[in-house]
Amino acid sequence: MVARNPLFHGRWSVKKFQATVINDIWPEMIFFSLVATMVTLVSKMTETKLQFDTGLLTVLGTVLGLTISFRTSSAYERYQDGRKMWTSITIASRNLAQMIWIHIPTERPNGPSPLECAIEKKTMVNLVQAFSVACKHFLRGESGVYYQDLFPLICVLPRYASEAQTRDNMLPLWQASDDDETPWEPKFESQPPSRTATFRGANALNQTASLPENHVRDKTKKTFDPEQALPDLEAHRPLKPARDPPQTTFADYIPFLRLFKWIGRTVARRAKPRSEIERQAKLNRRMKDLCQSNVPLEIILFLSSYSAHVMKKGLVTPAIATGITANLTALQDTFQQLERIAYTPLPFAYQAHLRLSLWLYLFFLPFQIYAKFGYLTIPGTAFATFLLVGFLEIGQEIENPFNYDLNDLDLDGFCLSVQRELHEITAHTCPEPHTFVFSAWNQPFAPTDRRSAADLIAGGNNEYQNPESKEIQPGMASLRSTLVRNWKQVDRVTRDPKNSLR
C-alpha cells in the first residue's frame, strides 16, 4: 500500500492553500518574528543583552507541548466520531429503505392497488432520505425546513393537527419554520403546485439524444445542481439554498480589519432611523419567542408511525418489524450523538488559557534562545510559531467538523451518497427467483461442471437427476461430490505461489 502525499499530489490551488492554517496563523508568525528581530538587533547593536536562562524554556516547553498535543488529539477524536456517526446514518438508512421497499408487500388482499402501495413505500423511502438532509442542516445551525434539498421531500407531511387550519393548530414542524413575512395560507395547500415534474418518457430521451455530443458533455461538466433530481415544486415562500457557506472577506485573512468591520457595522446601526431600529429589535424579540422544532426528530416520528401502521396491519413478519424498529432507533441515537459533538465545544476557559500560555511562551522564546542561536533566533521563533500555533489552530478548526470549512466533513456529499443508494434500492424490482435463476447465463456448479442451469434442468438424464446412472454416485450424492471437487479446484487455482500466506 502506497500513501499519497497530499502536499505534492495534484496541482496547488487557492482552495488547497485555504485548507491549510497558514492564512490563520500568519499574523502571529509576523508578530513573534518581529519580537525576535527586536531582541536580536538590540542584543547585537547595543550593550544590553536581552536574554534569560533556558531552564524556564525546557520546563514550560514540555508542558505546553503535551497540552497542545492533548488539545489536537481531542479535536481529532471528535472529527473521527462525527465521521463514524455519519457512517452509521448511511448504514441504518440503507437497511431501513431495504426493509421498507422489499419486505413490505406491494400486493395486499382487499387493500390498495399495487401502484398505491409502491407510491406509499417510495414516499417513506424519501422520508428516510430527508432525515440525513435534515441532520445536515440541523448540525450547521440552519433551522426550519424551507431548503431546496429538504422541502421537496417532506412537503407532503400534514401541517395541522385537525381540520381547523389555523396557526394555533399548526404542527410543530411547520409552525417553527414559518415566519410573519411569508405566512402559510391554507388555500395554497388546496391548489396544485404551479410547477410539477412529470414523466416525459421516450420523447425527452430522444430530445437529449438529438443534441450535439459536446453540448451535453459541456453542460454536465460545467453545472452541478443535485437538486434537479428532486421533485420540482413551488413553495409559498422562497427556498434557501441547500448549501449556503458564509462569504469570505478580506477580514478573514487580515484579522485587524475585523476592527474596522465592527466600527462600520456600529456606525451603520447608529445611522438607521429610530423606527427601523425599533422594528429590528421587535423582530429579534419575536424570533427569540418562536418555538423551535427538531426536524430530524419529527421525521423519525412519521417513520415510526408508518412502522406501527404496517405492524398493526400485519404486513411484515416479527423479524422484519424488529429490524425496522432497530434501525429507527439507530438513526435517532446517532443523531443525538451528532448533536452532542456539534453543540458541546471545549470550555472557553480551557481554550483561552491555553492560547494565552502559548503566546507568552512564544513572546519570551527569543530571550531564551538568543545566546545560543544569534541571528538564527528570528527564523527559529518563526518556525516555532508556525509549529505550535498551527497545531492549536488545527484543533480549533476540526473541533466542530460539520460547518463549511474546507477541512470539515463533506456533509453534502454524504447526503448525496445516501440519496444515490436509496434510489438504487428502489430501482430493484423484487423479481421472483425462477425468472432469473434457471437461465442459460447461470453456471451454478462451475468450475467443475460448466453446464448452465437451463441445460441441467432440460437434460433429464444427467447424473444429478438419474438415479440409474452407474458412472458416478447418483442424485444429490453426485451433486455433493461435484461441490467437493469445486472446492479443491478453486483452492488450487486461486492460491498465489509467490505468497504462501494467500
Write the layout of secondary structure elements.
Blueprint: H1 14-18, H2 22-45, H3 55-103, H4 114-139, H5 151-154, H6 172-175, H7 186-190, H8 201-210, H9 213-222, H10 257-271, H11 274-289, H12 295-312, H13 318-342, H14 348-373, H15 377-397, H16 411-426, H17 434-437, H18 453-458, H19 475-493
Helix pairs in contact: 2-14, 2-15, 3-4, 3-13, 3-14, 3-15, 3-16, 4-12, 4-16, 12-13, 14-15
Describe the fold and architecture.
This protein has 502 residues and is mainly α. Among the domains are: 246-290, no CATH class; 434-493, no CATH class. The chain is 60% helix and 0% strand. It is built from 19 helices and no strands. The model is unreliable at 195-221, 285-291 and 469-473 (pLDDT under 50).
Oligomeric state, counting identical vs distinct chains:
single chain
Mean pLDDT value: 80
Helix content: 55-70%
Radius of gyration: 33 Å
How many distinct helices?
Answer: 19
Labels describing this entry:
502 residues; flat; 0% strand; mainly alpha; 19 helices
Summarize the model shown.
The protein has helices at residues 14-18, 22-45, 55-103, 114-139, 151-154, 172-175, 186-190, 201-210, 213-222, 257-271, 274-289, 295-312, 318-342, 348-373, 377-397, 411-426, 434-437, 453-458, 475-493. The chain is mainly α and 502 residues long.
